[in-house]
Amino acid sequence: MPRHKSAEKRVNTNLRDQKRNLAVKSELKTLLRRARQEPGNASLMKSVESKLDRAVKKGVLHKTVANRRKSRLARMVNRTARAS
């Protein structure tokens, strides 16, 4: 249990941030899954990249993690484009 008022406030902000981070990560997972199923959908790819960048800006994901995911997604899109 927090002993000071500032520690109580910190607990509340941590819980709020945790909920937001969970929601953002969940949405990202869903978008990435959908993007893997439809690799030819350019607008979906743009929205995934945008969401990843916003997650980095909010501090939910690390910059290198988002870049790695974007890179892997782009590689997959390029592979499927070459194959067909």
UniProtKB/TrEMBL annotation:
Keywords: Ribonucleoprotein, Ribosomal protein, RNA-binding, rRNA-binding. Pfam families: Ribosomal_S20p. GO terms for cellular component: small ribosomal subunit. The keyword RNA-binding applies. GO terms for biological process: translation. GO terms for molecular function: small ribosomal subunit rRNA binding; structural constituent of ribosome. SUPFAM superfamilies: Ribosomal protein S20. InterPro entries: Ribosomal_bS20 (IPR002583), Ribosomal_bS20_sf (IPR036510). Signal peptide: none annotated. Belongs to the bacterial ribosomal protein bS20 family. Binds directly to 16S ribosomal RNA. This is Small ribosomal subunit protein bS20. It comes from Eiseniibacteriota bacterium. The gene is rpsT.
